[in-house]
UniProtKB/TrEMBL annotation:
<keyword id="KW-1133">Transmembrane helix</keyword>
<dbReference type="Pfam" id="PF13641">
    <property type="entry name" value="Glyco_tranf_2_3"/>
</dbReference>
<keyword id="KW-0472">Membrane</keyword>
<feature type="transmembrane region" description="Helical">
    <location>
        <begin position="48"/>
        <end position="68"/>
    </location>
</feature>
<feature type="transmembrane region" description="Helical">
    <location>
        <begin position="88"/>
        <end position="111"/>
    </location>
</feature>
<dbReference type="GO" id="GO:0050501">
    <property type="term" value="F:hyaluronan synthase activity"/>
</dbReference>
<keyword id="KW-0812">Transmembrane</keyword>
<dbReference type="InterPro" id="IPR029044">
    <property type="entry name" value="Nucleotide-diphossugar_trans"/>
</dbReference>
<dbReference type="GO" id="GO:0005886">
    <property type="term" value="C:plasma membrane"/>
</dbReference>
<protein>
    <submittedName>
        <fullName>Glycosyltransferase family 2 protein</fullName>
    </submittedName>
</protein>
<feature type="transmembrane region" description="Helical">
    <location>
        <begin position="402"/>
        <end position="428"/>
    </location>
</feature>
<dbReference type="GO" id="GO:0030213">
    <property type="term" value="P:hyaluronan biosynthetic process"/>
</dbReference>
<feature type="transmembrane region" description="Helical">
    <location>
        <begin position="448"/>
        <end position="468"/>
    </location>
</feature>
<keyword id="KW-1003">Cell membrane</keyword>
<keyword id="KW-0808">Transferase</keyword>
<keyword id="KW-0328">Glycosyltransferase</keyword>
<dbReference type="GO" id="GO:0085029">
    <property type="term" value="P:extracellular matrix assembly"/>
</dbReference>
Length: 479
């Protein structure tokens, strides 16, 4: 495949199938190249400072814990001598045992997991790809061209792009893609901004494929992604939905995307691999998902009219669709070999808004899942699905007790709290570091430490806040 087939800004490096290099800032003139490399040098220096700072904090904390061992012993003795303290220790031990056992169970499933290999062209089902877009500008053009470059029979592929009432030049970029791709893409414009769910709904109603694939309009897919996404439906008639493997596209531009890139690998390639072995991936991501048409139309009216506490649901459309398909008795699988590279927030404000939206959706859909997960919703064993559900609820139930305990610990023993927390991050985050290093790249893996520090001290409030505001509407990051 030629380098400019996907998009002029992005060069594909054959050496590493998951590594994209941004070249939009590189020009042919020496002056522009000089500016670019100066910017790159400045960025690399900042990256090194963040990573070095993370290591200094964790190593310093480990040494401090060693020095303060008598203080920790005294704290432990005092807790054991009181009823409340002893109770808290028992609860902490129980949670540790559960989480440790859950991790080992996931690890066992991960090692058993295998991606489904692509079926032949003759076996591939007719497929409709839906790309909803709102204020994405040039990005939607790049997305559509990457999809059109897929190794997929043209006669079996229907590509629909829907502008959800954008206020920028998104529609013009869609028309440009239409001009280049001709009949290979159909573009539509909503009369006004109605939300991503309504744009997808229009695509589902117009689609003619046996399988529907939804792709975010700021995402790039690999040439073999589509055929890998739809192959599980061919070999497994019980498969109702498939989650793609999401990586970060803009991880060369800022520190937060670098952190999220490592975090996504653990979330998808480890956690969803394990969930897939249970046939119960809990969320098919908006960036890349595939659905059996029959399963979609069985719940489409309920999905588009879904409400929460009397308000129309305008978030969490991916998790809601996943829940409704699971409830029908279908399996939901993950395809590790189906890559999509998507843009993520580059600043803290965008990051926490994205996490709030995800958190609110998680609260809503866990409530919905509670209505069917302990019933006979499908044939075969349902124990694994129920275990995943219990783990999800445990995170929500413990959100407030943990945050209260944290603030009490800080108020009474600030030095002990900081030293033990940074040491805990060093120990806990070493697994995602090793996992990413083994799967992808050693140097990038260390961002897992920095991400854990950011999450612990900068995003700890997300889940409690999302629970308290679960009924609020709004996408938050659309602009």
């Amino acid at each position: 495949m030629k380098n400019d087939t996907i998009a002029p800004e992005i060069l594909y490096r054959e050496k590493n199938e998951t590594d994209f290099i941004f070249s939009d800032n590189i020009k042919t003139t020496n002056v522009s190249e000089t500016k670019f490399f100066k910017k790159l040098k400045k960025t690399n220096t900042g990256n090194l400072l963040v990573l070095a700072g993370s290591f200094l904090l964790m190593i310093g904390a480990a040494f401090l814990v060693f020095l303060l061992e008598p203080d920790f012993e005294l704290l432990h003795t005092n807790r054991m001598s009181s009823v409340l303290g002893f109770t808290l220790i028992i609860i902490a031990i129980a949670l540790f045992i559960f989480k440790g056992s859950f991790f080992l169970f996931n690890a066992f499933l991960y090692f058993k997991y295998r991606s489904i290999k692509s079926v032949s062209d003759e076996q591939l089902p007719t497929t409709t790809v839906i790309v909803p877009a709102y204020n994405e500008g040039r990005l939607v053009y790049d997305t559509l061209l990457s999809i059109a470059a897929s190794d997929f029979p043209e006669g079996k592929l229907q590509l629909l792009a829907i502008d959800d009432g954008s206020k920028d030049d998104t529609w013009q970029w869609m028309l440009k893609a239409k001009e280049e791709l001709g009949d290979r893409v159909s573009v539509y414009q909503q009369p006004k901004n109605m939300g991503k769910r309504h744009a997808l709904y229009r695509g589902f109603k117009m689609g003619t494929g046996e399988i529907f694939v939804t792709i975010d309009s700021d995402s790039i897919v690999k040439p073999d992604t589509l055929r890998n996404m739809v192959s599980p439906f061919v070999v497994n008639e019980k498969c109702g939905a498939v989650a793609g493997n999401v990586r970060v596209l803009n991880n060369k531009k800022a520190i937060i995307p670098k952190m999220l890139n490592v975090s996504f690998v653990l979330s998808f390639e480890f956690m969803r691999s394990a969930e897939s072995m249970l046939g119960s991936v809990l969320c098919t991501p908006g960036a890349l998902s595939a659905y059996r048409g029959k399963a979609v139309f069985a719940c489409l009216d309920e999905w588009i009219n879904q409400t929460f506490m009397g308000q129309p649901s305008d978030i969490g459309e991916d998790r809601a669709m996943t829940n409704m398909i699971l409830r029908q008795g279908y399996e939901v699988r993950f395809q590790r070999n189906a890559y999509v590279f998507t843009n993520v927030p580059e600043k803290y404000k965008g990051l926490y808004k994205m996490f709030i939206r995800w958190g609110r959706s998680n609260v809503r859909e866990n409530i919905m899942m509670a209505k069917f997960v302990f019933k006979d919703f499908r044939e075969g064993s349902k124990a694994g699905t129920r275990l995943l559900f219990v783990n999800q609820w445990l995170k929500l139930i413990m959100a407030y007790p943990l945050i209260v305990a944290m603030f009490v610990f800080i108020a009474m023993h600030p030095v002990l709290f900081l030293s033990s927390t940074f040491l805990g991050i060093l120990i806990y985050s070493s697994f995602p570091v090793l996992f990413y290093a083994k799967r992808h790249n050693v140097s990038e893996s260390f961002w897992a430490y920095s991400y854990s520090i950011l999450y612990t001290f900068g995003l700890f409030w997300i889940t409690p806040y999302a629970i308290a505001t679960a009924s609020r509407r709004g996408w938050l990051t659309r602009g």
